[in-house]
Amino acid sequence: MVEQPSLENMNLLEFYRQTSWPQDSWPQMVRKRHLSNFLERHGFVDEHSPRRLNGKVRFECMYPIHVAAQTADVPMLRILLDLGVDPQTGAAEGRTAWQIAEEANRDGSHRRVLQLLEHSQRVKSVTL
Question: Which InterPro entries is this protein grouped with (predicted)?
């Protein structure tokens, strides 16, 4: 049995992130708080609005799903997918979240992100 962390010295969001409980069982307010913190930290207005990143050579328009994929933030990626964000949304260069995660993947660092995005595409194609 996996020992769960205690709530002492830990905010509620961090507590849920460190447990082995499925994210689906997180209370709705924790998911909203996690989303709000992520959007604010990365300069987004909402989960469907892009922001522009100033690269060394060019600007690229990215959405929250791209940043979650690039940073391997699996809990955030699941929240965004649950909210109906389309994983096929392209960045300015037309790159999808999967392509961005694939480029960032080093020695399996983004394996879970890639699996989640592949699974979401299979589920979407089966339900259409």
Answer: Ankyrin_rpt-contain_sf (IPR036770)
